[in-house]
Amino acid sequence: MVDKMACEFKAEEFLYSGHSACPGCGAALTVRYLAKNLGGKALFVITASCWSVLAGVGNTRSLEAAVTHSPFPAGAAVASGLKKGLESLGDHETQVVLLAGDGGTFDIGLQGLSGAAERNENIIFVCYDNEAYMNTGMQRSSATPYASYSTTTPYPLVNPNPKKDIVGIMAAHQIPYLATATPAFPVDLSAKLDRALNIKGFRFFHIFTPCPPGWGSDSEMTIELSRMAVLTRLFPLMEVYQGKKYNINYEPDTVVPVEEYLQPQRRFSFLESHHLEMIQENLERNWEDLKSLQKR
Ligand SMILES: Cc1ncc(C[n+]2csc(CCOP(=O)(O)OP(=O)(O)O)c2C)c(N)n1
Ligand code: SF4
Ligand SMILES: [Mg+2]
Fold first, then answer.
1. How many angstroms separate the first and last alpha carbons of the chain?
2. Cα-to-centroid distance, 68 and ligand 3 (Å)
C-alpha cells in the first residue's frame, strides 16, 4: 500500500517548529500526525520520556494542546481519572490521549496499562516505540529487539532476549480496538485514528518510531527504516477488534530481506550470521501466526 493520499493530509499544524527533537525523530513526526487528526480536541498525558521534553519545558511549549505530565507507572490511571472528570463535567468530546514510550508501556507502565485496559477506560493509549529508554541514554527495554546493542547490553553486546509481544498482550485484554502504525504510512495512521475516535472504550496504538541517535542511523533514514520495517514484515500494519478480529492492513507484494533493514543501523553492528538467520526465522514464524489469526 502506497500512501497515495499523503498529499491530501490535513494541513493544520499543532506541533510548532523549534521543538527540541533530534533531526529525524520518528516520535516527533508521529505526534505531529496524531495532533493533526485530533484537531485540538485532545488532552495529552505524557509519561517520563523524550516527549516529556519535546512538549516544552519551563515556559516554552511546542504542542498546541493541553498537556499533563505523569510518572511512568501512574500514566494510565492519571488519564483514566482525567477522562472521568471531564465526563462528569459534561465534556464528552475531549479525547484523553496517553503518550508513552516503550519503557513507559512495555515495562514500567505495564501494570497501570493492563488495569485501565481491563476496566475498559475510555482513553487512547499511544505507545511510541523507539525500542529503548532513549531520553536517558539508550538503555535496553523489553521492546529492544533481539541481537541489537544498547548501553546496558553486557558482553557480547547483543541483546539475547526477544522483543516483548505487546500486541499479543493487549489483544488478550480484549479491548475494543488496537492498531499498529508507523510514520512512513501517515494516511494509514490517520485512518486508524479516525476509526479509534468513533469507538468508545480503551484504544491502544503501537507506533514504530525510529530514533537516529539511539539506533545509530542517519536522520534522513527515519522514513525509509519505518517503511522497511513494514516491507520486511518485521512490523506488520494491523488492527485487532475486541481481541478477536484481526486485520492485516498491508501485505507486501515484494518482501524486503530483513538484512536491508538492519544494515543501516549501528545498533546491529555486532550481528553475526546466526543472529541474522534467527531474526529472519522468527519474523517468518510471527507473520504466519498473524495470518492464521486473521483467518480465524
Ligand atoms: C521511575 C522512574 N525511573 C526512571 C526515570 C528516568 N527516566 C526518564 S525518561 C526515561 C526513559 C523513558 O523511556 P521510554 O519510555 O522508552 O521513552 P523514550 O525516552 O524512549 O522516549 C527514564 C528512564 C524516571 N523519570 N522515573
Ligand atoms: S533521542 Fe530519539 S526519540 Fe528522543 S528526541 Fe532524539 S530522536 Fe527522538
Ligand atoms: Mg523508548
1. 24
2. 19
pLDDT at 9: 66
User: Which pLDDT band, with edges at 50, 70 and 90, does 8 fall under?
Assistant: low
Q: Is the CB of 49 under 6 A from ligand 1?
A: yes
Residues above pLDDT 90, as percent of the chain: 91
3-state secondary structure of 197: helix
Q: Is the CB of 135 under 6 A from ligand 1?
A: yes
DSSP assignment of 109-174: THHHHHHHHHTT-S-EEEEEE-SSBTTTT-B--TTSPTT---TT--TT-S--SPPP-HHHHHHHTT
Residue whose C-alpha is closest to residue 125's, from 36, 207, 238, 14:
207
Residues with CB under 6 A from ligand 2: 21-22, 25, 27, 50, 130, 134-135, 211-214
Angle ∠(171,172,174) on CA atoms, nearest 5: 70
179 neighbors 202 (Cβ within 8 angstroms): no
Amino acid at 2: V
Pocket mutation for ligand 2, best pick of 20, 22, 226 (most atoms within 8 Å of C-beta): 22
The per-residue pLDDT for range 137-168, each reduced to its tens digit, is 999 999 999 999 999 999 889 999 999 999 99
Q: Which helix (H) or strand (E) holds 232?
A: none
pLDDT at position 10 over 90: no
Q: What is the mean pLDDT of residues 6-35?
A: 88
Report the atom number in ligand 1 closest to the C-alpha of 52: 9
Ligand 2 atom closest to the Cα of residue 128 is 3
Distance CA 118, CA 242 (A): 12
Q: Give 31-56 pLDDT, tens digit per residue.
A: 999 999 998 789 999 999 999 999 99
Total residue length of the chain = 296
Closest ligand to C-alpha of residue 136 is 1
